[in-house]
Write a structure and sequence with these properties.
Layout (H helix, E strand, L loop, with lengths): L1 E9 L8 E6 L7 H11 L4 E5 L8 E7 L2 E3 L3 H13 L9 E5 L2 E8 L2 E5 L5 E4 L2 H11 L6 E8 L4 E6 L2 H6 L4 H4 L3 E7 L10 E9 L4 E4 L3 H13 L6 E6 L7 E7 L4 E5 L1 E10 L1
Parallel strand pairs: 2-3, 4-6, 11-12, 13-15
Antiparallel strand pairs: 1-2, 1-18, 3-4, 4-5, 6-7, 7-8, 8-17, 9-10, 10-11, 12-13, 13-14, 15-16, 16-17
Length: 280
């Protein structure tokens, strides 16, 4: 069956500088095995499938697959799929676009040229135990003396985050992916005036998920949502900031974070790069 397909570049103001997601529209009737096989075939960090919602308050239902399996939620697929859904001419009457996915309902709002999603609550938080930090820092090649804090920020993917003492330290990391194993690890560090790529960029972020078939993810909405939830809770980040991600991969991802007092919004620009059909 021929189905509409869009490949959307997310968290970038210009094409092919962010993180692509393949979005299969009209995905009703595709079984789990076909979805997983197509995600392995695209070999992108995520491939999504847009389905009719089962919740009457949602505009659509989304299933999200990495090359290694299905996720209950992920950020850049949420924004990219919302962008592709709106591009079909969908009639949205509410204030928000509402996505149904494995973690429940996720609100997406228009923010000028960007879309932004409300960060879902963390299902797991708190400090990472010392033994795990030792294992992960060894796999990353990071001296534990440069780790300011380590925290679980699980909102779908099983992210743990290490805050390093500088953005340059983040950029210098060269992971041993075999040693990382199934750990899903984010690292974040604050820029100095000397390393800031442009005014307004506060943090540098990287994400590693080799167990999901994604050794390094170019730009990661779920991770940035978890980082923002953690840092804002502890008063370690301002109300609004911009994070850069993908620098080490030659990308120029920009994630716009805003805490409005009720929700933390994770936003970025999306561009449709490829449209067509797929036989599934």
């Amino acid at each position: 069956m021929s189905r509409r397909l869009a490949q959307v570049d997310v968290f970038a103001s210009a094409p092919i500088t962010g993180n692509p997601v393949a979005v299969v529209l009209d995905a009703d009737g595709i079984d789990d095995e076909q979805m997983a096989a197509f995600a392995r075939w695209t070999n992108l960090s995520e491939t999504t499938f847009v389905l009719p919602p089962t919740d009457p308050t949602a505009d659509y239902r989304l299933r999200i697959f990495t090359p290694g399996g299905e996720l209950p939620f992920a950020g850049h697929p949420t924004l990219g799929s919302g962008h592709a859904f709106l591009a079909t001419g969908a009639d949205i009457t509410g204030e928000y676009l509402v996505q149904e996915c494995g973690v429940g309902l996720v609100r997406i709002r228009r923010d000028g040229q960007r879309l932004a999603f409300a960060a879902p609550p963390l299902s797991r938080s708190g400090p990472v135990d010392a033994a795990t930090v030792t294992e992960v820092t060894a796999a990353l090649g990071v001296d534990p003396a440069h780790v300011l804090a380590a925290e679980w920020v699980v909102n779908g993917p099983e992210w743990m985050v290490l805050q390093l003492d500088s953005a340059q330290r983040v950029l210098d990391v060269r992971p041993d992916f075999a040693a990382l194993g199934d750990h899903e690890v984010g690292i974040v560090g604050e820029h100095s005036d000397a390393t800031r790529p442009e005014p307004g960029v506060l943090f540098e972020v990287r994400a590693f998920a080799p167990g999901d078939g994604v050794p390094e993810d170019p730009v990661t909405g779920s991770l940035n949502a978890g980082i923002a939830t953690w840092l804002r809770r502890d008063g370690r980040a301002p109300q609004s900031y911009v994070a850069a991600q993908g620098t080490a991969l030659g990308r120029a991802g920009r994630v716009f974070v805003t805490d409005d007092g009720d929700d933390i919004w994770i936003g970025g620009e999306s561009t449709t790069v490829i449209t067509g059909t797929v036989e599934l």
